[in-house]
Every structure is written in structure tokens, then in C-alpha cells.
Amino acid sequence: MTVIARKLCWGVKRKTIVRDVSLAVRAGETLGLIGPNGSGKSSLLRLLAGLKQPLSGQVEIQGRDIANVPRREVARNVAFVQQSAATDTNVSVRDVVRLGRTPHRSALSGWRASDQEAVDGALRQVGMTHLQHQSWQTLSGGERQRVHIARALAQSPQVLFLDEPTNHLDIHHQIEILQTVRQLNLTSIVALHDLNLAAMFCDRIIVLKDGALIASGAPETVLTEELIASVFRVAAAVSISPHHGHPQVHFRTGDNAAV
Questions:
Q1: How far apart are CA 189 and CA 81, in angstroms?
Q2: Helices 141-154 and 113-125 meet at what angle, rounded to 10?
Q3: Domain 3-251 belongs to what architecture?
Q4: What phi-psi label fits residue 14: left (phi over 0), alpha (psi between -120 and 50 degrees) or beta?
Q5: 61: which strand partners?
Q6: For the range 12-16, what are the long-range contacts, defined as Cβ-Cβ under 8 Å and sequence gap of 24 or more?
Q7: DSSP H or E run through 229
Q8: Do the bridges between strand 3-12 and strand 247-251 make them parallel or antiparallel, or are there none, so unpaired?
Q9: C-beta neighbour count of 198 within 10 angstroms
Q10: What is the distance between the alpha carbons of residues 51 and 59, in angstroms, rounded to a whole number?
Q11: Other Cβ atoms within 10 Å of 221 Cβ, number
């Protein structure tokens, strides 16, 4: 499914958080959102997913303005993975993932084979099958994040929004999760704080600063030393990795690290 945003603006009281952002994401593409803390990445994701209503502008998914689409219908096609979530309920991992099937079921429908297959597949994709009967309360932060992603995958979405999904994960699982997302046959928009992960796993990157979109394109054209210095206020050297062929950012240390 395609995702198109036209001149999105949103803010709280007198503070503008997303400023006149327009973008287009092709079906099956993985788009990365990068920018410093407070740049508007999370707010933009929620606008694109229909979780916030813009003050002006609109979002179209597969050519339809999502403001005019029933929320349940949106939920059948769009899944959102937030940075973190908590619950005091003592439920199993599998029960959490089963919640992803809610938009596809009516109040009177029973649990179907297709629901079972979706949950099993989602657990398998994030490597949590062996913990499916374990209590949610006993999981580490990284394990909980993987379960949240599994719940989103169980939803069988066509568009997946992820807000810094690698938070709390060790390096191995960061790469594993983003490889999983990258290989899915769906449209993905992911906010990331790690520039090297964005370069490795995103087809295109957009850069936000103070709520405005200031750069957009392939990682090798966007991730320049000049842009990193301007947006993130750090000095870095950028090269092409001989191992994976993507840009690789090396941050400088010492007296000249900040700019």
C-alpha cells in the first residue's frame, strides 16, 4: 500500500511540532525517519498512522484519506509499534500477540485457523516461540519489544509503522528485527535514532529538524558529513562499507566531536 502525506501540520497549544511535511512512500518500500530528539519523528508517525489528527493537511493510504475511513478498517491494514508499553495484567506472551487479531474478528466470531497461523508466524518471525507461554511480567525490556512487534505482525498489516523499535535491544536483536521488517512484503515507515541502522535497512531516509522535513532520498545521498553536522551537531566521517555497500557513519571523539 502507498502512503502519501500532504502538508501535514500539528502542534500543542502554541508550539508547532510537525511543520508542513509532505512525503510519499511506495508500496513495499521501507522509509526511515531520522532526526534529533524533539524533531517530530514520533508525532509524524502517529499522524501518518491516523493516531493523531493533523491541524491541517491530510494522509492518504492507498489513495484514500484516512480521516474518512472507519478506524476498524484502518486497523485491518495499518499496525503501529510504539517505543514502549506496559501492562499490569498477568498475561502470557501468546495472549499479548493474540490481541493483534482483534481488528479481524467480530464479537461473536470464534478463534479460526487463520488467527492461529497469524499468531504462530508472528512469534516465529521475532524469535519468541519458545517464550510464548511465559508471563509478560517476567520478560526483559528487549523481549517485550519483540512481543510488541509480533503483535503488530499478527495483525497482518499492509503498512507497518515503528517508533524506534530497536530501543532496549542488544545489537544482535536490533539487526535481526530490522532484517525481519526489511524482508516483509509490506510498506514500512520506521523512526530510528541509529544512523547506521537506517542506512543499512531503509530504501530511503527523510530527515526532520524542528518538525520540518529538510532532506529526503537514498541513504548515500542524505547521510553526508555536512548534514550530520548541521542536524545532529556532531562531527562525523561517512564512508561506504565494503561489507554491505551502505553508508557508514563514524562519529569523531575528543575536542572536535561537537560542532
A1: 11
A2: 140
A3: 3-Layer(aba) Sandwich (3.40)
A4: alpha
A5: 3, 64
A6: 16/211
A7: helix 225-232
A8: unpaired
A9: 27
A10: 11
A11: 13
Determine the Cα–Cα distance for residues 205 and 156; give it in Å rounded to an integer: 25
- Residue 121: what pLDDT? 94
Instruction: Give the pLDDT confidence score for residue 176 in this predicted structure.
Output: 83
- Which residues of the chain are under the pLDDT cut of 50? none
CA distance 98 to 155: 9
Q: Which residues contact 151 (CB under 8 A, 6 or more apart)?
A: 96, 97, 99, 100, 122
Domain ranges for the chain? 3-251
Asked if residues 187 and 1 have their Cβ atoms less than 8 Å apart, the reply is: yes
In whole angstroms, what is the distance from residue 104 CA to residue 92 CA?
A: 21
Query: Helix (H, G, I), strand (E, B), or coil: what is residue 194?
Result: coil
Q: Are 151 and 100 in contact (CB under 8 A)?
A: yes
The pTM score is: 0.90
Q: Say how far apart CA 4 and CA 18 lie, in whole Å.
A: 15
Residue type, 257: A
Closest to 195 in 3D by CA, of 232, 170, 168, 169? 232
CA distance 211 to 25: 19
